[in-house]
Amino acid sequence: MIDFLDPTAVAHHDDWPACTGGAPVRTAPWPTYDQGAVMIDEDDIRAAERAVRSQLLFRYDTRPYERTETGMLELEMAEFFGSRFALATTSGTTALTLALMGSGVGPGDVVGCPAFTFPAAASAVAAAGAEVRLIEVDEDLNMDVEELAAKLPGLKALIVCHMRGVASDIEAIKELTDHHGVILLEDAVPVFGTTYAGRRLGTFGAVGCFSFQADKAINSGEGGLVITDDQETFERMCALTGTYEGRLKRHLDARGLPTLIDERSLPIMSWRMDEVRAAIARSQLSKSGRRRAAARHNHDLIAVAVDRLGGWRRRVCPTVGDGIAGDTMILFAPEGSDASVLAAALRAEGIPGRCLGDPTDTNARCFWNWLFCFPGTTEQQRKALAPRSATLLARAIDIPLSPLMTDTDRADLIAALRKVASLFRQEVAA
């Protein structure tokens, strides 16, 4: 077995970085979801087949709510999170949009959004007809709590995102939003099942939002989930997903509750999950703990090796011990180094490093690429809305991890980081 925790044990590759003519560390594909590195097993395949063979693919038919795949998924998810209500959706983005609209956010309202997040959050704000107010991030790319305190007045709601699998300081954020009467919504899309201070992320806010796509802990191809303890919010979200002609009552009857709203008062968006995806998600829910454990174990081993290697600063969580999903590692280029060059050097070694703020890239996670939020502005003007965040993103290198990584994969990553580190160490020496 390769002792990849020992940086000297992975020096068997050509010491010259591949970008300067050396041999690359690896030529094999990196284990990512877009190359088929996903945890889909025979049980998942049988679950999808079961749903298809039933010939009942729509979530509303003659069966009782609690006998449908989607209904059973929602009840199981509510139990998993310890929430009163859960609603399965077509995607994480629709989950965020439902959270906003179900909470009463609409035209004329202002919603806080971190300057580092996937544009689904900003897109949801736009879909609700509201306006985005950017909140700067701190040195670890999490929402800056001090900056938030100054920008809370005037906000109707705040979306906090546990971006790239690392929890924000959600307890401090919740204390602030509670004090100011601002609705707290959790974009927990990247951290399904992950805990923070012993509590599952997504349960701190008024509504928690999740995604069941791609490299998430549950992968039904596309899909999402909202959870809440507030019945009226839940009913509004149900109505928006398409509970026409009395179908809202099914959701409440299954929980022994009377309806509180008239479903006809809200538009029908058809954003609720179908039976096939729900069947796959149900199959994966029981195994999601194993996937989370594998991802976190894998991440922690690599983190130890990176720290022993030296030279790189890695992104960390505000708490020690939990709050990390483990599907990504973000490293920061040293002062005076060009993160875009270092990321390109990692790619030359066979590791898909990506500088988040690469000026030649249009990374969707960088707020200055959200043209739909800031029409008629220049990139310079947009970066000026959150200048510290723009600077930090320009130094950040994003490396996707996978719970399916082997010792060889981990050793290759550390070997590549060691080789690329020689580039900025040479700069310092010069």
CATH architecture of the largest domain: 3-Layer(aba) Sandwich
Query: What integer value in Å does the Rg equal?
Result: 22 Å
Sheet with the most strands: spatial strand order: 1-9-8-5-4-2-3
Shape estimate: globular
What string, H for helix and E for strand, traces the elements in order? HHEHEHEHEHEEEEEHHHHEEHEHHEH
N→C terminal distance:
38 Å
Main pleated sheet? 7 strands, mixed
As an assembly, this protein is single chain
Q: How many DSSP-defined strands?
A: 13
Structure description:
The protein folds into 2 domains: 174 residues, Aspartate Aminotransferase, domain 1 (Alpha-Beta Complex), CATH 3.90.1150; 244 residues, 3-Layer(aba) Sandwich (Aspartate Aminotransferase, domain 2). The strands form 3 sheets. A 7-stranded mixed beta sheet has the order 1-9-8-5-4-2-3, with helices on both faces. A 4-stranded antiparallel beta sheet has the order 10-11-13-12. A two-stranded antiparallel sheet has the order 6-7. Helix 2 packs parallel to helix 9, helix 3 crosses helix 4 and helix 10 packs parallel to helix 14. 50% of the residues are buried. The radius of gyration is 22 Å and the shape is globular. It has 14 helices and 13 strands. Helices cover 37% and strands 12% of the residues. By secondary structure, it is an alpha/beta fold. The mean pLDDT is 93.
